[in-house]
Write a structure and sequence with these properties.
single chain, 158 residues, flat
Length: 158
Amino acid sequence: MGERMMKLRLKILIVCGLFWTVPSGTMAQEGLPVDSSAAEPGQKTTWVDSLLREFSLEELIKFREFYQNEVRLFEREERLLRYKGIRDGEKIYALNPQSPFMDKVLFRLAEYYFQKAREDYFRAMEKYEEEFRAFEEGRRDHPPDEPKPDYSRVIEKY
């Protein structure tokens, strides 16, 4: 699985580069690759320009959709593994709370709970932003309550 994750991360980085739009010359100033083969003297172009010459818009859209789906699958797998880690960590703690290795188990369990709490908070913020937009547009009578992160499980495990 580690190799698959590394390949996916590499693909994501490459695709992110496909869709970043930057002013002409910006990437050159940052020391990133530049395609100047089609440039007139004094005109700077970025490597994004060469991608647009190599791939059609339809192909780029297909790339984006493919990698967005890969990211969703990766995030789903990450959530599943976190859930399993929490489940297994709680089982280990319940079976042998006096183990000399329990400090490591509890530390990792707290990390899992922190990641879950952070993800829950970000999801709640997305919902809050939608509801707040509805309030601004007059589709809601009152503003929604802003969510707050809940780190109580994390603190309990530390």
